[in-house]
Amino acid sequence: MKIGLFFGSFNPIHVGHLIIANVMQDQTDLDEVWFVVSPQNPFKARKTLLHEHDRLKMVELAIADHFFFRASDVEFHMPKPSYTIDTLTYLSAQHPQHDFKLIVGGDNLTHFHKWKNHEQILEHYGLYVYPRPGESPSLEHPNVRFVAAPLMDISATFIRDSIKSNHSVRYLLHEKVEEYIRDRKLYF
Q1: Residues 6, 24: contact at Cβ < 8 Å?
Q2: Which residue among 30, 35, 64, 137 is the one 20 to 30 A from 104 at the CA level?
Q3: Separation of first and last alpha carbons in the chain
Q4: Chain-centre distance of CA 32, in angstroms?
Q5: Which residues in the chain land under pLDDT 70?
Q6: What is the side-by-side strand order in the sheet with 144-146?
Q7: CA distances from 86 to 89, 94, 96, 169 (A)
Q8: CA 140 and chain centroid, separation
Q9: DSSP of the chain, one letter per residue?
Q10: What distance in Å separates the CA atoms of residue 123 and residue 103, rounded to the nearest whole number?
Q11: Contact at 8 Å (CB) between 85 and 115?
Q12: Tens digit of pLDDT for each residue in 62-88?
């Protein structure tokens, strides 16, 4: 199977993530999309990050009713910070029957050359790129595929700040995710 790997902090997972993943799976040749929850993004500050098991649980709740989506905690068991190439290499060794592709927003292409072993990612895995507001990315490579998808400008920071201020996040989060956050008083 061809698997699209959607890496992220998912702090929290929101409808923008779900819409992009759905477009990628439905409108490309990807058989499934796996949400790879990153315990620590090397480019993000750790202080705002909710515990990885809470973020994984929210992903599981958000995708529970979608047959072609999976949640992955693979990076929880790897050295931190986790690097995409290491995770791709590990998953390929564990699942040699699958062809893994990396799903990224166009905004990632600006700094893609700074990623660890970015040439190896391009050569052996390839990118499925979705558009991001204000970005007109270009990267000429046979393993880079630009996918027409809705422009999503939903900020997890905005969602966390709204929750902290006791404002509604209705329609921004899957209702099961919102319920999980409220029940556990996360982000307050």
Answers
A1: yes
A2: 64
A3: 41
A4: 13
A5: 41-47
A6: 69-72, 32-37, 2-8, 99-105, 127-130, 144-146
A7: 5, 12, 15, 35
A8: 23
A9: -EEEEEEE--TT--HHHHHHHHHHHHHSS-SEEEEEE-S--TTS-GGGPPPHHHHHHHHHHHHTT-TTEEEE-GGGGS-SS--HHHHHHHHHHH-TT-EEEEEEEGGGGGGGGGSTTHHHHHHHT-EEEE--TT-------TTEEE---------HHHHHHHHHTT---BTTB-HHHHHHHHHHTTT-
A10: 15
A11: yes
A12: 999 999 999 999 999 998 888 999 999
pTM of the model: 0.94
Tokens standing for 83? 């690097």
Identify the pLDDT of residue 158: 97
Give the span between the Cα atoms of 62 and 66, in whole angstroms. Answer: 9
How much is the pLDDT for 82? 82
| Residue owning tokens 């990050």 | 49
What whole-number distance in Å separates Cα of residue 8 and Cα of residue 108? 12
Output the pLDDT for position 55.
Answer: 97
Token duo for residue 57: 């649980």
**pLDDT at site 80:** 83
